[in-house]
Amino acid sequence: MVGYMKIGILALQGAFVEHAAMLDRLGVQHFEIRQRRDLETEFDGLILPGGESTVMKKLLYELDLLDPLIKKIQEGLPVFGTCAGLILLAKQVNGGQLCFASMNITARRNAYGRQLGSFYACEKFADTKAVPMTFIRAPYIESVGKNVEILATVDGKIAAAQQGRQLVTAFHPELSEDTTVHQYFLEMIG
Ligand code: GLN
Predict the structure, then answer these.
(1) Distance CA 11, CA 50 (A)
(2) Comparing C-alpha atoms, which of 65, 23, 61, 60 is closest to residue 44?
């Protein structure tokens, strides 16, 4: 199944190359979404990388990608948001709405514990195993709403969650060698 999948990676800004490398390692086809025309390609899942969520939102809007992507997500396109990608999907961000607002989570930007910089953890992910977690000016999930399953917590804060076919991590699994989280996403699609 994995061999036939095609994943679109939002490639406007941020850490998209690392996601592509991870999918290469897993033998999954992918392509970059940079402009409206790229959405003519058929694809089975979408990755929203880390970076700067406010910049990504601005570019999505300017490039006329915001509405078509919201529509696809609402129609059930599987999506995986890491860090800034989590912020784009969250229904509430620091008390307001930021971007797609498709997932029943409340996110707080740049506020993971006291550590505003980068840090590293290794905690259990879903029902798999402990995975390496790199946090870079990460958000955390303050609370989750209906139909959201918590997949990981770090220092008592929610670091990964899933709602149907939407998966988010506050950390960057693409920056480690461990393929667990990406495999989880691919299985979610399959
Ligand atoms: N701090 C960034 C934001 O608010 C997210 C950081 C990241 O993606 N590594 O969008």
Answers:
(1) 10
(2) 23
Residue 32 lies in a domain: yes
- For residue 161, the one-letter residue type is A
* 19 classed as catalytic: no
pLDDT, tens only, 21-54: 999 999 999 999 999 999 999 999 999 999 999 9
1 domain-assigned: no
Q: Does the CB atom of residue 137 touch ligand 1 within 6 A?
A: yes
pTM of the model: 0.96
117 phi and psi angles, rounded to 5 deg: -85, -145
Whether 118 lines ligand 1, by a CB cut-off of 6 Å, is: no
142 in any annotated domain? yes
Ligand 1 pocket check for 72: Cβ under 6 Å: no
Question: Could you give the number of structural domains in the chain?
Answer: 1
Q: Residue 168 belongs to a domain with what CATH number? A: 3.40.50.880
The range of the structural domain enclosing residue 22 comes to 6-189
Is position 155 within any domain?
Answer: yes
Which one of the listed residues 18, 19, 83, 99 is annotated catalytic?
Answer: 83
